[in-house]
Write a structure and sequence with these properties.
heterodimer; A: about 350 residues; alpha/beta; Rossmann fold; Dihydrodipicolinate Reductase, domain 2; 2 domains; nine-stranded mixed beta sheet; six-stranded parallel beta sheet; globular; B: about 290 residues; TIM Barrel; eight-stranded parallel β-barrel
Chain lengths: ~350, ~290
C-alpha cells in the first residue's frame, strides 16, 4: 500500500519509518510545514515526495492510507479532509483538543464512514495485552478496585513546544502520556460513568504537571489514577497498575504481569504466577521504537487492506476525550463529581 | 585485516540506570552508580580481569566518567566504544520543545552553524550539503567528551540506525561510514534490532562486512523476524557481530545463554552488564569458557 504521513515530528518519522520498512508497503509522501525539516527531508529522501501543504498531498497522491502525526490542534481538520476524500487514516493520540473538538470528527465520520485508527499504542505492549486477557477472562472474580500510576521524568522547567501550549495541545500531562491510561481503563473495564479529579501545575503555568483522578465505572467498579511528568527517577514512561478482585489480584508494569490467586482456576495456579516481557515476546518484522508501534501499524494496515473496522478508533477515542474533559471540569471545581456526558 | 574488537565489552546500561527487564532494578543501580567513583571502581575491576573494552553512550553522566578515566591510568588501557547519541535525552528534548528547536539548541554552540542558522531564520531551506555538514557538527559535538581517549568503533544508536533503515536513507549510512573513520580514526559501527534487514540493505548500499551490535539470544528477545532467520543471516553474511541482550534481559541463565550464543558464527564480541564485582567475574568466566579464542 502507498502511505502518506502528515507532520514529520517524532511520531511522524517513527510511523513513516515503520511503514516504509514493512514488506508490501511504502511511505510515498510526507507533508511537513517546517522549512527546516522539509528541506532536510528532501535532501535525505529523494525517493519520498515532500509537500509543505497536506491538502495538496491528499489531492495529488494516490494514497491507500494516511498517518496524521501533527500537533493535536490540527488533527481534526486534517482527519476531516481525509474523510472527505475517503482515505483511511491513522491519527496519533490524543485525537482532539477536547470532547467538542472530537465530536466534529465523529459527526463527519457518521456522514461518510471511513476506516480509521487512533494511536493508543499501549494496547499493543505485550504485558498489557496479557493483562487484558486475564481481566477479560474474569479469573480475578468481581473486580473491586484498581489503581494506576504513570510517571515520567520529563518536565522540570516550563516547556517550550506545542505540547505545553494549551491552545495547541488541549492541556498538559492529561493530554500527553496520561491519555493512554484513560484509553486503557475503558479497554479494561468498559465505559466510565463519572470522575473526581485534582490537577496541579508547577512547572507549567497554564496546564497540569500532576493529576489525581478517581474513576467511577458504569459497571460500579471504582479506581484511581495518579500521574505526573515532573517526578524524578523515571527515565522512561513507567506504568504500574493493580487490580484487586474477589478471587485474586493482578499487577501490571511495562516489564511484567503478575497474578496472585487465592485458589487455582482452569488456567492459573493458586499463589503467584508471573510473565516477563521476554516470555511474552512476539515476533515482529521490524522494530524501530519498540515492537508495540510495529504491531499497531501492522494492525492498522491489515484492517485497511481487508476493509475491516478497527477496535481503537475515532469512536472509542471520542469516549476518551469525554472522560478527559470531565477530569478537567472536575479539577476546575475542586474535585466535584462530574458525569461523563453520554 | 582490521584487528578484532575486544571479545568482551563492558556495557554501560547499569551505570545509567537501564535494566530492560525491570525499571525498578534499573533505578536501584542508578542510585549506586550515580556516584561516579563506583563506576570507575567497576571499570578498574573489569580491566584487572582483562576486560578493556567499554561501551559508553553520551549520557549526561558519561562526561564525569570520562573525565575520571582521563585522569587515571585507565586512560591508556581501555578502549571506548561510543554509542551515539544518548537517545533518551533527545526524545525528552523533542517532547519538551519540538524537533526543530531541539536541533537548533544542540547546534547553538557551534560557530560554523551560524550561517545555516541565519539562513533558516530567513526562511530558506537547507541544501543537501548543509544537512550533511549539520550532521558532522552534531556528531563532533556529541563525541567531544571522548576526546583524548582511545576509540575503537563508534556505534550509531539503534533508534537512529533502525529509523534510517526503515526510511531507506542510503546516503546517511554512506556518509556515516566514511565520516567516522576519517574524522576519528575509529570504525563506523551500527547498533540495530533489525539485523536481517540491515544486512539486506547494506548489501544494496555497498557497505561490506559491517560491525553490527544487535540483540542475540535464544528467546528472540528484542530481535526481529524469526530466530532461525537470524541464525541463517550469521551463517550466510559477512559481518562482525557484537552481541547484546545475550541473557534476554536476565530471562536466560548465563551458561545456556552463552553456550547458545557462541554456537553461532561471526560473534566477534559480546557486550555484558556487570552490576557487582562478583557478577562481573562470573560473567567473564562463563563467556571465556564458551568463546574459543
Amino acid at each position: 500500500m502507498n502511505i502518506g504521513v502528515i507532520g514529520f515530528g517524532k511520531m511522524g518519522m517513527l510511523h513513516a519509518g515503520i511503514v516504509n520498512g514493512l514488506k508490501g508497503h511504502k511511505t510515498v509522501s510526507i507533508s511537513e510545514n517546517s522549512d527546516f525539516i522539509g528541506s532536510s527531508l528532501k535532501a535525505l529522501m529523494p525517493h519520498i515526495k515532500v509537500y509543505s501543504d497536506y491538502v495538496s498531498m491528499l489531492d495529488n497522491e494516490k494514497l491507500d492510507a494516511v498517518f496524521i502525526t501533527t500537533p493535536v490542534h490540527m488533527h481534526v481538520d486534517m482527519a476531516i479532509e481525509a474523510i472527505r476524500r475517503k482515505i483511511p487514516f491513522f491519527v496519533e493520540k490524543p485525537m482532539a483538543l477536547s470532547a467538542s473538538d472530537s465530536k466534529r470528527l465523529v459527526d463527519e465520520l457518521d456522514k461518510t464512514p471511513t476506516l480509521n485508527m487512533v494511536g493508543y499504542m499501549m494496547r499493543y505492549i505485550s504485558t498489557f495485552k496479557k493483562a487484558k486477557k486475564i481481566i477479560a477472562s474474569n479469573a480475578l472474580g468481581d473486580i473491586i478496585t484498581f489503581n494506576y500510576s504513570l510517571y515520567v521524568s520529563q518536565l522540570f522547567k516550563p516547556g517550550k513546544g506545542w505540547r505545553y501550549d494549551k491552545t495547541k495541545s488541549g492541556g498538559g500531562l492529561m493530554m500527553g502520556p496520561t491519555s493512554h491510561v484513560v484509553d486503557l481503563m475503558s479497554w479494561f473495564f468498559g465505559p466510565t460513568h463519572g470522575v473526581n479529579a485534582s490537577a496541579l501545575g508547577y512547572y507549567s503555568k497554564t496546564t497540569e504537571d500532576f493529576i489525581h483522578a478517581i474513576f467511577h465505572m458504569k459497571s460500579g467498579v471504582k479506581g484511581w489514577l495518579d500521574s505526573s511528568w515532573s517526578v524524578r527517577g523515571h527515565r522512561l514512561v513507567e506504568s504500574r497498575f493493580e487490580v484487586h478482585g474477589s478471587r485474586g489480584m493482578l499487577i501490571l508494569t511495562d516489564d511484567y504481569v503478575k497474578v496472585c490467586m487465592d485458589e487455582a482456576t482452569d488456567n492459573l495456579k493458586a499463589g503467584w504466577t508471573s510473565w516477563t516481557k521476554p516470555e511474552l515476546h512476539e515476533e515482529v518484522e521490524l522494530d524501530i521504537g519498540g515492537p508495540q508501534y510495529t504491531l499497531e501499524d501492522v494492525d492498522f494496515l491489515e484492517h485497511v487492506k481487508r476493509g475491516e473496522k478497527i477496535e481503537c478508533d475515532v469512536y472509542s477515542a471520542h469516549e476518551v476525550q469525554k472522560i478527559i474533559t470531565a477530569i478537567y471540569e472536575s479539577a476546575e471545581e475542586k474535585g466535584a463529581f462530574k458525569v461523563v456526558n453520554s | 585485516m582490521t584487528p578484532n574488537l575486544d571479545t568482551i565489552i563492558l556495557g554501560h546500561n547499569q551505570f545509567f540506570g537501564v535494566a530492560h527487564l525491570s525499571s525498578e532494578k534499573g533505578a536501584q543501580r542508578d542510585q549506586y552508580f550515580s556516584d561516579v567513583k563506583n563506576v570507575i571502581r567497576m571499570i578498574e575491576f573489569s580491566q584487572s580481569l582483562g576486560v578493556s573494552g567499554l561501551m559508553m553512550s553520551t549520557h549526561p553522566r558519561a562526561e564525569a566518567i570520562c573525565d575520571l578515566i582521563k585522569k587515571s591510568k585507565l586512560r591508556d588501557e581501555i578502549s571506548i566504544y561510543p554509542l551515539l547519541p544518548y537517545i533518551a535525552k533527545y526524545v525528552r528534548q523533542a517532547n519538551e520543545k519540538g524537533l526543530t528547536n531541539m536541533v537548533m539548541d544542540a547546534l547553538s554552540g557551534a560557530s560554523a552553524m551560524q550561517k545555516i542558522g541565519m539562513m533558516l531564520k530567513g526562511g530558506a531551506g537547507l541544501l543537501t550539503k548543509d544537512v550533511f555538514k549539520m550532521m558532522e557538527i552534531l556528531i563532533e559535538l556529541e563525541l567531544l567528551l571522548f576526546k583524548g581517549l582511545k576509540m575503537r568503533a563508534i556505534f550509531l544508536h539503534q533508534a537512529l540506525t533502525d529509523l534510517a533503515l526503515g526510511l531507506d536513507l542510503k546516503d546517511v549510512f554512506l556518509f556515516y561510514h566514511e565520516f567516522i573513520p576519517k574524522k576519528f580514526g575509529a570504525e563506523a559501527a551500527y547498533c540495530t534490532f533489525n539485523t536481517p534487514m540491515l544486512l539486506e540493505k547494506f548489501k544494496v548500499y555497498g557497505i561490506e562486512n559491517p560491525i553490527v551490535m544487535a540483540p542475540f539470544n535464544k528467546a528472540g528477545f528484542q530481535m526481529t523476524r524469526t530466530l532461525p532467520e537470524n541464525e541463517k543471516c550469521l551463517r550466510e553474511n559477512d559481518l562482525r557481530l557484537v552481541a547484546m541482550s545475550s541473557l534476554a534481559g536476565g530471562y536466560l541463565k548465563p551458561r545456556e545463554a552463552y553456550e547458545y550464543l557462541f554456537s553461532n558464527p561471526k560473534i566477534e564480541s559480546v557486550v555484558v552488564g556487570a552490576s557487582s564485582e562478583a557478577h562481573a567475574k562470573e560473567t567473564f568466566e562463563t563467556i571465556r569458557s564458551f568463546k574459543k579464542a
